Amino acid sequence: MGEPAIDLMGLPDSGTRRAPSRAGWAALLVGTIVTGLLVWASSSVYDHNESRLLGLRVRDVGSVLQAVVPSVQTPLASAAELADATDGNAQRFRTLIAPYVGPGRQFASASLWPLTSAHLAPTVVVGETPELVSLPGQARAVFTNGKPTALFRVTGLLTSKSPRLGYEFRAPGVRGGFAVYAENPVPADRRSQYQSNSAFADLNYVLYLGRSQRASDLLVTSLSHFPITGRRATESVPFGDGVFTLVVTPVGSLGGAFFQRLPLIIAIVGLTLTLAAAAMTDRLVRRRHYAEQLAGVLDRVADENRRMYTEQRSIAQTLQHALLPEVPPELNGLQISTRYVPAGSGIDVGGDWYDIVAVNDRRVLLVIGDVSGHGLEAATTMASLRHAALAYAAEDAQPASVLAKLAGFVNRAPHGYFATVLCALADVDAHRLTVASAGHLPPLLLDGDESRFIAVDVGAPIGAPDQTPYGETVVSVAAHATLVTFTDGLVERRGEILDVGLARLRDAAMSAQLQLDDLVGKLASDQESDAHNDDTAIVGIRWQS
Amino acid sequence: MAELDEVGPGALLIETRVDAGGAAIVVLSGELDMSNTPSLRETVAAVTADGAQQLVFDLGGLRFMDSSGISVLLEAAATVETVQIRDPSPIVRRVVETTGLSRVFGIES
Predict the structure, then answer these.
(1) What SS3 class is residue A534?
(2) Do B74 and A499 touch (CB under 8 A)?
């Protein structure tokens, strides 16, 4: 028999690496998309927020810048009116303006220019000499262009060797009059001196004179590289009668470092979770796949077991039938029918057997037996008993004689079994039965309307340590009588006294007025449909007259 | 018998003792069939190996016995001088009578 040869190679080794499953890929894709959307959303919110903050900041800076305007306007306007009132008194002018001129004060230079003189030149200079003095063309442009307004005029002297920003004021409504002019230096490289201004340390800025953002109009900046790329905000800041254009850009993140890094954090966490989810999905899918394949293999094992069981059961039944006579002998005046029903379950061959021996053409010896136990051992014992019985029957067909010789045959050697055997010699013409039993169940006689078990003088089973000779019971039977012999499987049921089973058999045989073969077949099929666990042999004979 | 209630379906309970006369008593309760004859066979082998020549099977608590059980009793009968069956239930008694074993074993009610 051996182990079932099941192909387990179809089962994947759960340890081997294979390409990730489709579900794993899907989880990866979905996770990545979700992460991407979150990153996009957070960075877009961040972006929007930064732009909004920058817009607020540029207005702050613009306000600060505008706050400077009065500190320029007031001294210039006062000096201009004083000059008008005093007709350009130098001493008075110097006294007024001096506190505003010098390092760390409003102006690097302040001067008074009489506009009526033919030669355009300052009459009074406080602080440095104005750059404008060396630029007569520009000076003319500054002092003659435009009408006097209430505001000072801003002039950029940005192309000269030492660039300056000039402020000019003429008192409005004064004829001829004077112009007050002040200058401040602009750094040659335009780099701001005040980068560490704490209030605006988070911003870089560029300040242009006028509305354009040309490099030639650049006044001052905190940056070393142009133009500004990236996030920036622009604000036009009125200054005197002109305009400064302020461009700011954040140094870092205005909203804080956390919000700046949030998209990155989301990306890292999201992708990590995505990878974990994909790996877990893949693992689950793999396990389910493995379980399904395992179930498949188990199904195949079960199928194989069923197949082998069926095969062995079929072998057992084939063997059993090989050990039993194929065709009962033909005898005029006597019908014979036999059945063998294997046990309802199991693959063992049984130990039940029967034989029908035509002693001569008017007498037949019926032998039926049951060797204790099951399996090949019981079957081989049965085969040897069967052939021994056939041999003894050929010598002398008297039932008691056959049984006695069988008992002697078995008891010659130590043995671990016993057998119940019934021998019935039927005389066709004399309508007579001679029965001997070695521990076997009594035969059923259907005699006319009567149905009874023949009260046989039962001897010890073959193989039992008993030397008492077997007795014979002789019964006369009526015409058309039927004898049914059987083994215990037909009547024995667990938990039930034997007589109940015998009565059930008698009733079943009585209730049916059937041809012999149909009757024996019916008894056999009743047995088959029943939950029996023992094999069963049935032999029936019927007198035809 | 208390054992009848205690021993479950299909189970067999085996107890052995030796009586004053030197006979080995094997008390069986429950059901004796093909599934548990090997354990009974071992018990009988152990008892007879001790030299007992009188064997008594007390079957008072036995509800069922099939031909494989009979087989063990017959094997025992072949190895000792006498085998007695004590107090068989009607089911078991009927099996013993039907198989002609009343000739082989002494039966005590």
Answers:
(1) coil
(2) no
Among residues A278, A163, A145, the alpha carbon closest in space to that of A209 is found at: A163
Quote the pTM value: 0.55
Smallest CA-to-CA distance from A524 within A501, A482, A490, A500 is with A490
* pLDDT classification of A345: cutoffs 50, 70, 90: low
Q: Rounded to an integer, what distance in angstroms lies between the CA atom of residue A466 and that of residue A9?
A: 60
Whether residues A459 and B66 touch (CB distance < 8 A) is answered with no
Q: Does B50 touch chain A (CB under 8 A)?
A: no
The last residue of a domain, from among A322, A345, A362:
A322
Chain B residues 65-84 within an 8 A CB cutoff of chain A: 66-68, 70-71, 74-75, 77-78
Interface contacts (A, B; CB < 8 Å): 77
Residues of A with CB under 8 A from a CB of B: 370, 372-374, 414, 416-418, 420, 437-442, 458-461, 463-466, 468, 488, 492, 494-499, 534
Q: Which chain B residue is nearest to residue A494, measuring alpha carbons? A: B64
Assess whether A33 and A163 both reside in one domain.
yes
DSSP H helical ranges for A250-398: 257-323, 375-395
Nearest chain B Cα distance for residue A419, angstroms: 9
CA distance B83 to chain A (A): 11
pLDDT tens digits for range A288-305: 989 999 999 899 989 988
pLDDT at res. A456: 92
Kindly state whether residue A7 falls inside one of the protein's structural domains: no
Strand, helix or coil for residue A138: helix
Give dist(CA A490, CA A494) in Å, integer.
12
Structural domain span for residue A354 = 324-543
User: Is A496 within 8 Å of B92 (Cβ atoms)?
Assistant: no
Q: How far is CA A21 from CA A12, A32, A289, A301, in A?
A: 14, 17, 10, 28
Return the H-helix or E-strand segment holding A50.
helix A22-67
Complex confidence, ipTM: 0.80
Distance, CA of A282 to CA of A286 (rounded, Å): 6
Residue of A nearest to B94 (CA): A498
pLDDT in tens, A409-463: 988 877 778 899 999 999 999 999 999 999 999 999 998 788 999 999 999 999 8
Does A480 map to a domain? yes
> Is residue A205 a contact partner of residue A221, using CB atoms and an 8 Å limit?
yes
Give a yes or no: residue A8 inside a domain.
Answer: no
Per DSSP, the residues of A167-220 read: EEEE-TT-SS-EEEEEEEE--TT-B-S-TT-GGGTTEEEEEEESS---GGGEEE
CA distance B14 to B28: 5
Kindly state whether residue A3 falls inside one of the protein's structural domains: no
Name the residue among B34, B91, B103 with its Cβ closest to that of A459. B103
Q: Do A195 and A314 sit in the same domain of this protein?
A: yes
A464, B98: Cβ pair inside 8 Å?
no
Measure the CA–CA gap between A84 and A86, rounded to whole angstroms.
6
Q: Which of A269, A288, A322 is the last residue of a domain?
A: A322
Domain count, chain A: 2
